[in-house]
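Continued from yesterday's entry.
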Amino acid sequence: MSDEDSMENGAAAVDGENTADPGTGTREPWPEQDPPARPEPEPAPGPSAQPEPVPAPARVPVLRRLLRSRTVRAATAAGLVGALLGAGAVAWRTDTLPLVGPAPCWDSLGDSTLTDLFGDRRTEVEEQALQGDPVGQGDSYGQCRITSYKDDRARRQVTLRVHRLDGLRGTDGHAWPAEFLTAGMVPLGDGLPGLTSSSRAWLALPQSCTGRDEFTGPTVVDIAMGPTGLDLESDYEQEDRAALTRAVVEAANGVIRDFGCSGTYRTPATPPAPVERHKTDAGAFCGTKGFALPEAHRKDLARTRVGGDGGPARVCEAGGSYNPAVRLTTVTDAALSEIFSSGTLRTGLSVKGSKGYGSIDGTRAVYRAKCQTGPVVFMVEQLDHTEHSAAGLARELLPGYVAAEAERIGCGPEKVTLPGS
């Protein structure tokens, strides 16, 4: 990956003002009343208030398929423009021609970001216009997919999605956290409400732009590169993470503009260092004081990795040399915690606590507590069987994890009572 372009310095901006309907692009003032099912603005919660973006012009969404060539000569590209425009496609070479037509993914991704992601390979872009899904519950707004090619062989693919995270029906309570709330992810930095890694990144849009209903999570832009669960250490890990961070911030700014809202996020100056695996501290499991790992599991959970410290969610994974056997997650962002609403109310055996409630469903336990800063979710998931437990780790670890983590974040004391206890 090219490192010729440095990341833009500056702190994150906060919520902007909505001036248009995200579903239609029609500009109109927001009504002074409770938001309906369709996204409308509401004040962001105090403790987790998001940064205020600087003004940016509105733009009409465009449905297009772009054929982007970064290797053709200037003269060839100029000759292709007229023919390709008639077919709904555009070709250009970044270093010799100005950008022809809108940039990929809602007129957001710059040349330097595309170079960092794909090098000088030819790329094809498939992009949906941003509008509410007319078939589903309106949670999905669109996606953009970029594929790079060497000759005729696909080499790398990046997919960006814009969607509102669901909590009421439970559709985003399992697959999305498994992909975007993992121990390999770190905070975007500079106060941005999201996480990033070398293969995944996500950023929540300002609630003053999108609005948020009860039992729904934030509206996010997320970006995925490579298969789910593929988290290998690489010589390009730092470069790929920086490129994905820049891409998700640029895409979020494009969506904010497309929705008719004002403001932009600023790309963080320096993302945090990658998360490394360490030998498990059995007396302070997952780096949490007072959380002791039972003796029977210390051999199977010998390596630990903790990511997300200081961000919307802190994630700990433990297991052998590579594959984690258990994942423990603490979600402190109030909006993000809502995606687990269904999991705490509708599934499994009921769990009671001194300041909360939850459930245990097989290999997964979820507990929601009321803290001074708002709702917090604690989750324990068994991802693989161990020598001493085929499916009982979630039940065994939840009480100690909740008690110790609640103390760590200033939410204790918290005592969980398991069903049958």
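--- second protein ---
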Amino acid sequence: MTWPVAQGPHDHLITFDTTTGPLWLWVLLVLGSIAVAGFGVVRPFLGRQGRATVIGVTATAAGTGLLQLLLTEGLDLPQQAALLVLLLLAVPVLVARQRDPRFEKAARRARRAAPVVVLLAAVGASVEFARAWSGAGEQTSSLHTGLVIALAGLSWFAICAARSRPVAVGTHVVVWSLANATTAATAHVALLSALTV
């Protein structure tokens, strides 16, 4: 059976058995979201992470964000903003994998800019979650939009290199809040998908 998973300028079709296919995709989405949110919560207590861990977290966030886009009927964003969110998902993966000395300066700048990106993503995701939970927006698309933005912010947190202790503490507080909201939104999305699958 062919199951349409996204609407837009072009349709994405994924072929699966109707009883197990969508379920496995939703399970992967939930596991990826929870893993990235969990990393955001525990990172301040773990000290410096290895390169493989950072690559794993950023790749999981990017993959889960893309899966989120494939499984939704649309985002509560204009196309230009959706492109920006995709870029925000991709940059941390590139920075984490970067080994070329020619790009070290750009990677260092991205790491230093990460607290600002995390804060902006937290604000954007919070607005979308508030719209979904208050009934101000279309619940499903607002939740999915908030999750994609939150995953981008949590991915940037994985590469974050705050310049000062106050900035680091402030970023940790923002990320703890964002990670908890991401966990709650993931549970909500899982519940909604279980009712429709």
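The radius of gyration is 17 Å. The longest strand covers residues 2-6. Will compare against the first tomorrow.
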